[in-house]
Amino acid sequence: MNLQDQIGVLEAGVDQLLQAAAAAHAPRADERAAAVPQQDTPVASSEAEQAVAEQPHTVAVDTAAEAADAAAEPVEAANATVTETAEAIEPAAEAAHAAPAQPELHVARPSQNEITLTIGGQTVTLNALQVGQMIEELSNARASMQPEPPPGIPQGWRFASTKNPMMAVQKQSNGDRLLVLRHTGHGWVPFTFSPDIVAQMYMLLTQR
């Protein structure tokens, strides 16, 4: 085989290789062309489905928001009503809890043997015996109350003295002396003196 023949054989082999390569690439191109529409279709459909899925969701959210606003309006109105009611009740409650004013006592003497006491618009008339009973009850209560009467004679003190009062004396088992004096206003007023005070009182009454 000469050189010319060898070149022809090589050219024929190259042609066969080119044909084989072209045949191999043709199916792959077809597969790619077929694959492109198949991929585009699901993508488009998925986007449409997503848009459709998102649309009702948005509508549902908007509807829920509107329902929440509609429900909030009565609640706000109710809260406003409660606030107004509380503001209206508060002054009445404060007035109810406020300490009632102390009624004033008015003493009058319509006649010589009567005393009238008026407290809170209610008037009571007391005769001499009832006044004496009240003085006795008040005196017994005042003896245990604080503060005690002043130790000295207060300036400007008004009093009604009893001259030469009736008296009664009783000796106690411990040596003390019980002296009861009859005052025309206070009635029978009892005093108890220990022996040393009796001696001092005797000296005060007998000194010149």
Task: Characterize this entry briefly.
The chain has 208 residues and is an alpha+beta fold. 59% of the residues lie in helices and 18% in strands. Mean pLDDT is 76; it is low at 36-45 and 56-61.
What coarse outline follows from CA principal-axis ratios?
Answer: rod-shaped
Spell the H/E element sequence: HEEEHEEEH
Portion of residues in beta strands equals: 15-25%
Count of distinct strands = 6
Helix share bin: 55-70%
Estimated structural class: alpha+beta
Low-pLDDT ranges? 36-45, 56-61
How do the strands line up in the largest sheet? 1-2-3
Our measurement of the CA-to-CA distance between the termini, rounded to an integer number of angstroms, reads: 189 Å
Alpha plus pi helix count: 3
Please indicate the count of domains. Answer: 3
Q: Can you give the mean pLDDT?
A: 76
Biased composition (Low complexity): 34-55
Region (Disordered): 29-55
Protein name: Phage tail protein
Organism: Paraburkholderia guartelaensis
Labels describing this entry:
6 strands; 3-stranded antiparallel beta sheet; 3 domains; 208 residues; alpha+beta; 18% strand; 59% helix
Describe the structure.
The protein has 208 residues and is α+β, with helices and mostly antiparallel strands. The protein folds into 3 domains: 1-98; 101-149, no CATH class; 163-208, no CATH class. The chain is built from 3 helices and 6 strands, in the order αβββαβββα. The chain has a 3-stranded antiparallel sheet with strand order 1-2-3. It is rod-shaped. The termini are far apart.
